[in-house]
Amino acid sequence: MQFLAQVDLADVEPDSVGLLSVFMCQNDPGLCDEWDPGAGGNRAFIFLTDIAPTHTPPGDGITLLDATCAVEFEDIDAENYLDAPEHWHQRSGRPQREVLGQLGGQPAWLQNDETPTCGTCAVSMAFVVQLEEGHDHRTSINFGGGCGYAFYCRGCATAAFLWQC
Fold first, then answer.
1. How far is the C-alpha of 49 from the C-alpha of 88, rounded, in Å?
2. Domain that holds residue 116
3. Could you tell me where the DSSP H helices lie in 5-163?
4. CA-CA distance, 4 to 103, in Å (whole number)?
5. Does residue 60 lie within any of the structural domains?
6. How many domains, in total, are found in the chain?
7. Helical (H) or strand (E) element with 43
8. Distance of CA 65 to the CA centre of its chain
């Protein structure tokens, strides 16, 4: 599985502790059901230990991407996620396609609401992050032209990830 993203839960909810890490199958020719949060083609984990800094990938060995990237969080005053890229573009002067997602709030579903339930306690999971594929082919995630969505269960410290296109 390929590492996709990590989010400090305190950035979403100030009283939360932990790091959400998201992984997705990169099997070629794509035989994993990575759009389904329970089929095994993707995984999300909550790590409750102290959050370690990110590290540069090793210079040798096998890597699937020839580049990596980091993103910067910016608070945008918008009614919803679909309006945020235009507000950000107006403020920054940079292209809207550089907006790579949102932290917290409500997911902007491309299809129907697929909020997962916790496999342990059967409660609906809390939304953490929505991820766009990206604008650079060297670092883009393959969501089939869609978006990825990560959730976690506050009580059980479990997580789930899915995507829609």
1. 33
2. 2-50+65-164
3. 84-92
4. 15
5. no
6. 1
7. strand 42-47
8. 17
Residue 59, in any domain of the structure: no
CA distance 34 to 25: 6
The one-letter code for the residue type at 1 is: M
Q: Which amino acid is at 83?
A: D
- 76-99 b/e with 16+ CB inside 10 Å = b? beeeebeebbeebeeeeeeeeeeb
Residue at 129: amino acid letter: V
| Per-residue pLDDT in tens (0 to 9) along the chain, 165 residues | 788 888 889 888 888 888 999 988 877 666 677 677 877 788 899 988 655 555 666 677 766 655 666 667 778 888 888 888 888 889 889 888 877 888 888 999 999 999 999 999 999 999 999 998 877 766 777 788 889 999 999 889 999 999 998
CA 25 to chain centre: 14
